[in-house]
Amino acid sequence: MNERPANISKYAQGGRAFLAVSLMLLVGVFACTRSQKRSQPAAQNANSSSSDAAIEVSPSDTDSSSDDPCSEMFSSLFVAVDSISFEGYEIVRLHRTIHDKASKSNIQVSYAVLKSRGREIMTFEGTSFGAGNETNFGFASLLGGQTKQLIVSQTIPRNGRHWIVDLGSEAVVVFDSQDWGLGQEDVCAHDFDGDGIVELSLMIERFCGIGAMSIAECPLVGVVFRYDSAARKYIPDLGALSHLLDGISEDATKIDSAEKPSQSEKGSYLAERLDIFLRYVYGGQEREGWSYFDKSYELQDKTEVERRIRVTLEQEPIYRFLYRKKSRI
Question: What is the dihedral of CA 78, 81, 86, 89, to 10 degrees?
Answer without folding.
Answer: 100
